[in-house]
Specification:
Layout (H helix, E strand, L loop, with lengths): L29 H4 L25 H15 L6 E4 L14 H14 L6 E5 L2 H10 L4 E6 L7 H8 L5 E4 L6 H9 L3 E2 L7 H10 L11 H4 L2
Parallel strand pairs: 1-2, 2-3, 3-4, 4-5
Helix pairs in contact: 3-4
Length: 222
């Protein structure tokens, strides 16, 4: 559903918090979705955001835009980290069931021939389990929240296979957790790290990367 923090309605009014869930993207067609702006209202959590007109893009639009930009600028190909935003209580209400969701994503990935350049991440083990069964060559990442309170070994047992990446909330990262992952051949990439000093701390601990809202931190050193 559209988020009140960033959404402007087609009539120019801003979305109120109490209205969020009534503007259900899953129940709209894309022509309807495109009438809502998500770039002109500055998100209070991102004060550096530049105001510009923007609509929620299709996955194909994102990939085409990135490839068009990256081709003349990057020597290395771009990897895509795509998340399935789903949970059992939202099935067929705010999103498709996990198998349908994954199949829709993979249809685009296969059409764009990106099988070797994509990671699918999710908090929902159902999506990862289906992906692993149906598309075993695709890299997977298990997302973990601090509130889960489930030991690493039990999480993998519940998942049923060894993912490519283990991606916990950054406050959960310890030297022991990194060792446990690396001993199993799993990369550890925490989220969401928006402070350069915290990024440096995690790098010293030995993480394999970080998820951040500010990739420019790597260029500025700030």
């Amino acid at each position: 559903f559209f988020n009140h923090e960033i959404t402007t309605k087609p009539n120019g009014d801003t979305l109120r918090e109490s209205e969020d869930r009534s503007f259900n993207i899953y129940q709209m067609n894309y022509d309807e979705v495109k009438t809502y702006d998500v770039g002109l209202k500055v998100n209070p959590r991102f004060p550096q955001q530049q105001k510009m007109r923007a609509v929620k893009p299709l996955l194909t639009d994102v990939i085409d835009s990135v490839e068009a930009y990256a081709s003349p600028h990057n020597k290395k190909p771009v990897f895509y980290n795509i998340e399935t935003k789903c949970s059992p209580d939202g099935d067929d209400i705010y999103h498709p069931k996990p198998d349908v969701f994954v199949d829709l994503i993979m249809k685009v990935i296969n059409e764009k021939n990106l099988q070797d350049r994509v990671i699918i991440q999710s908090f929902d083990v159902r999506a990862l389990q289906y992906l692993h069964e149906r598309f075993p060559s695709i890299k997977t990442s298990l997302l973990v929240e601090q509130a889960d309170h489930i030991p690493f070994a039990q999480q993998l047992k519940a998942l049923g296979f060894i993912p490519t990446i283990y991606s916990p909330e950054h406050t959960l990262v310890t030297a022991l957790l990194i060792k446990q992952c690396h001993d199993m051949g799993v990369k550890l990439i925490p989220w969401t790290v928006n402070d350069r000093s915290e990024i440096d701390k995690l790098k010293r601990l030995g993480v394999d990367g970080v998820i951040t809202d500010y990739p420019n931190l790597f260029n500025t050193g700030k």
